[in-house]
Amino acid sequence: MVSKNYLIFDFGASNGRSAVARFDGDKFDIEVTHRFDNRPVYAAGTLYWDILRLYSELMVGIQSSVKKYKNITSMAIDAWGADFGFIDNNGKLISNPVHYRDEKRKADSVSLYKIISREELFELTGAAIIPIFDLFHLYSLKLQNAPEFVNGYRFLTIPDLFNYFLTGRTYNEYTRITTSIMYNQKEGRWEDRIFDRLDLPKDIFPEIIKPGEKIDNISNKLCSELEIETMPVIAPAAHDTSSAVAGIPVVNKNKNWAFISMGTWCIIGKETESPIINDQAFNAGFSNEGGVEGINLFVNHITGLWIIQQCREKWIKDSSKLISWEEIVKLSSTARPFKSFINVNDPIFAQTQVNMPKTINKYCKDKGQALPESIGEISRCIYESLAMKFKHDLNKLEELTGKKIEILHLVGGGIQNKLLCQWTADATGTPVITGPNETTSVGNLIMQLKASGEIKTLGEGRAISLNSSIVSNYKPENRDRWDEEYSKYLKIL
């Protein structure tokens, strides 16, 4: 067959990209056509997403992709798993979406919990009950009597908002809505009991669309502005984690496998047939998210590469020179092993506007540990602590599902750090498989292939992913040493 071109957009919490996938019926290859940073803006005491700049990057990505690849079959957008915008009844965006790390929603969560406890929210939705997610911000807007809440006509998550800008159509994509803490995942409906008790409106949510369904074409007006031909806009798994999991090139379907999506957040989990909602899961910090084709993702959220990203920003600022990721990994590899650990999920490491290296140093001092001071020591502390956290949560995952994990698939931008991948295999004692680098883009593509009739099932898409991808294998090493150090790690939790 003649190759077909598919346009992919992936908006991550710290950067984004557009890419074009060329598919010949058996294999695909993906070329990134545009990359950009995603930096929030702190203004007048509030942390915002710079949504209009991100939209302009979307336009640049479309134009640059169409310029190089004339005939594009369709396009699709995935994004991070929190935050939303409101349009009014005239179809206008009311304000910039607020960043999930803004402190206001965390402060207002205290009053929300007085009405509905964390335990009950989990029982009703099965979602992760963390103040970064949509329910907490919507409730915070209500308490403020904010213009967005008063005048909001349609609630649109970030990928839904971009799709609206492109097509004029309003939908909520399924996988993204399952992280909102407003959707009953067992019964497949919005949870009215939450809306009633918190006095939140029910009529602001548009129709839910599933991955692999067509939203509409890019509007004629926008096509005229961009000087392009129109193309269909498809709903992928709009939550980037769900897209990443969909794109995993499963090498052995007969073995129990789990995944870690390694990005600003690290998300560890496995696919299950249905949501797991019980006290044991809640107490262990696990929750549920929607996958494609009715699959459930049973996961735990880990404060991931955010910590080292914040350290790098501080080091660059202090030294007035660029410090590459390669340099950080090299310095980490030669630093003293197991000098100190941090609990990466301690709330102090999720804060913005802090000196992250100093915060790590203080944490270690308060726990009676040796102080990591150099770039190599601090970065090694972070990476080893992440590997230990992965071990901790993988053990919990096995307990909660009753399944021994035989293969661990790592996906996301973090897999470019080969040192962390090896340490993950060492710490967990589990063979690790990584790749492809752009797994989220692969999952996005698979749903576009399904929409265009090239494939019928996720399984077919994963077989194509395996046929098209270069994967890397990491075998566990130094098990005894990592197990010995793990007992020390547990003492700082």
TrEMBL record:
Q: Which GO terms describe its cellular component?
A: cytosol
Pfam families this protein is in?
A: FGGY_C (PF02782), FGGY_N (PF00370)
Family (UniProt) = Belongs to the FGGY kinase family.
Listed A to Z, the keywords are: ATP-binding, Disulfide bond, Kinase, Nucleotide-binding, Rhamnose metabolism, Transferase
Residue ranges annotated for the Carbohydrate kinase FGGY N-terminal domain, each copy included: 6-247
- Name of this protein: Rhamnulokinase
Carbohydrate kinase FGGY C-terminal domain span:
259-451
Question: Which biological process, per GO, is one annotated for this protein?
Answer: glycerol metabolic process
GO MF, one example: ATP binding
